[in-house]
Design a protein that fits this description.
about 30% helix; alpha/beta; about 15% strand; about 250 residues; TIM Barrel; single chain
Length: about 250
């Protein structure tokens, strides 16, 4: 594909298809300045401020989808255990950051949001996709709100395309300067080589690496992650069609 001459922020997209993806920023793991990240009150606060919600999912040993960022519980609970080895009954015993809040199930979040704002779900790359994707489809089948899926894993996105073709999918990408990925994994994702293989509808690119020639060659929306400062906000406005925001306060200025 030849490089497009139209700047990213001036490109026009199908309004019916992309309206809910592009109309408002997504709160990164909810609004968590007062509450733990990826917790129900953090999501409730994001809803109250009319932001979309970005969250992360993992699969437990008993095939339940929980909303949590890391593979291991230690950073958020102080417990050195991996989610994939625990049942949900075991996981819900642990509190988030010395609060009374626990790690929610995805269905708890869906019951809370009820379509009031869009949800951007990140599938973590270490999950068992053969089990997680069908389970995700099952949990989303009767949900009436707008949901989008993104992942660094192009094979997970391709699997989502096959079983949930009507849900828009986004490739997460970066230059991976601080990640210990092997180059043969890093380079194709960085350069968006899997765009057609995964049937993606948008790209979520690391703000630190925008602008770049890889997104300039696309004809689909670009989301920037993660906005933390006022300078980040300005850069994202100039180089992307929407943003994932870690510090909501920058949007108030």
């Amino acid at each position: 594909m030849k490089k497009l001459n139209i700047p990213i922020i001036q490109r026009e997209f199908d309004k019916d298809k992309y309206r809910e993806l592009l109309r408002r920023p997504f709160a990164h793991r909810g609004v968590h300045n007062e509450y733990p990240e990826n917790s129900l009150p953090a999501f409730e606060k994001a809803m109250g401020m009319n932001f979309g919600i970005e969250l992360d999912i993992h699969l437990t040993s008993d095939n339940q989808i929980v909303v949590f960022h890391d593979d291991n519980l230690i950073r958020m609970t102080g417990v050195n255990e991996f989610i994939k080895f625990l049942t949900y009954d075991e996981i819900k015993r642990y509190k988030l950051k010395d609060t009374s809040y626990t790690i929610p199930l995805l269905k708890d979040v869906l019951d809370l949001v009820k379509g009031k704002v869009p949800i951007l779900i990140e599938i973590k790359t270490n999950n068992n996709m053969k089990k997680l994707v069908p389970k995700l489809k099952q949990e989303l089948e009767n949900y009436r709100g707008k949901v989008f899926i993104q992942s660094f894993n192009p094979f997970a996105l391709r699997r989502c395309y096959k079983v949930m073709p009507n849900i828009l999918r986004g490739q997460l990408s970066s230059f991976f300067m601080r990640d210990h990925l092997r180059f043969y994994k890093k380079i194709p994702i960085k350069k968006l080589f899997f765009k057609n293989f995964s049937h993606i509808d948008f790209v979520s690119y690391n703000l630190e690496n925008l602008p770049n020639k890889y997104v300039n060659k696309t004809d689909i929306p670009i989301l920037a992650w993660t906005v933390k400062t006022e300078e980040d906000y300005i850069k994202a406005k100039l180089n992307a069609n929407n943003m994932i925001v870690d510090n909501i306060e920058v949007l108030k200025k």
